[in-house]
Amino acid sequence: MVKKTLLTFLYRIKVSFSKIKLKFGIKTGLVKSVIIVPYKGFGSREKIYLIGRVLKDRGIGLSEIGDSRWKNFTKMYKRFMSWEIPKVKVCATLGEDYWVTETDDEGYFEFFINPKQLIQHTSPWISLDLELIDHVLPNQGKVTASASIFIPTKEVEYGIISDIDDTIVPTGATRIWEMLKTTFLGNAHSRIPFEGVSAFYQALEKGADGKENNPMFYVSSSPWNLYDFLTEMMSVHHIPLGPLMLRDLGLSREQFISGSHFDHKLSQVEKIFELVPDIPFILIGDSGQHDPEIYLQVIKDYPGRVKMIYIRHVSEKRRQKVLDIKTEMKSLGVEILLIEDTIIAANHALKKGWIRAEDIQIIINYKNQDEINNS
């Protein structure tokens, strides 16, 4: 009871401070423009999920390979010291249909859309138009954005859900100082993926038919503040883009720190399973935190939906735990492969007929080149 009372009190202070800061910023001209930041959405022909945020435009822009550590730190500071725009209405339009929602105290908005008619599409990606209805600034003008939504086509073979930290890129997620240094002093160019990962993910996206229709989803405990950083990193290193499911960190109405790693990732993976029904998934993670435990729970909650699990081995002290989980997964009819090299996973996927034979040599070539570049 005391904890809940303290939490409520501190949260009210936080919200009040944010409101005062925003009013001050508008009055003094520190807030000159606002933007809608849509994160990639997803769903099916019957339902769509989209999350985004309304913020002060801080003009962060793209990074350059030669950017200094100070410049990288400055951009990261801007990402975390954001100016949220709370309690404003955002309109989403698709064809002749439209929906309206309101941002919360942190500037986030969510749409759970059920179109009146089934969505007709030939490409996996469709666009949703967004517009800020309320006026925040004097002489604001129109504030609009276009959101990309992934809707699987009939040609999908399977979906892929992957962790990011220590699965795609080595970050030292289990070593706090190493992770902070990597995050705040580096940029999209200096965050180097594990060797061969980009080519392997490209092969999975293409699948056995080579058509690049298989949806890629990324679930991480990283904060939403890093969304543009992570999408730029993926683009720079040719990792297939897809919806990223991140989280809000810090004080909330319910918790001092917004949710546990386990609860967040489990809820996001299961949200994907709910909104993208009828297709199996390959799940990819690492042994450093709790990906094997999370994926085990997914198998129990959604029997028959998990096709395969690849776990990058990054923690020797958790090896036995992962092996115990492997035994339990096997009893449930799902295979898990503990790997230290991307080629092992790629060869396994080829053997299963999930990727094309010609893509194996591409993955090997990428891995060899990555090793040369990283040496």
Question: Keywords, please?
Answer:
single chain, 375 residues, alpha/beta, Immunoglobulin-like, 2 domains, 6-stranded parallel beta sheet, 36% helix
Q: Tell me what the CATH architecture of the largest domain is.
A: 3-Layer(aba) Sandwich
Identify the CATH class of the largest domain: Alpha Beta
Average pLDDT value?
88
How many strands?
A: 14
Provide the succession of SSEs.
Answer: HEEEHEEEEEEHHEHEHEHEHEHH
Task: Give start-end ranges of low-pLDDT stretches.
Answer: none
The class by helix and strand makeup works out as alpha/beta
Looking at the structure, what is the overall shape? globular
CATH superfamily of the largest domain: HAD superfamily/HAD-like
CATH topology of the largest domain: Rossmann fold
Helix content: 25-40%
Radius of gyration of CA atoms, rounded to a whole number: 21 Å
Distance between the termini: 55 Å
Give a quick account of the main beta sheet: strands, pairing sense, barrel closure: 8 strands, mixed
Report the total helices. Answer: 10
Total discrete domains: 2
Beta-strand content: 15-25%
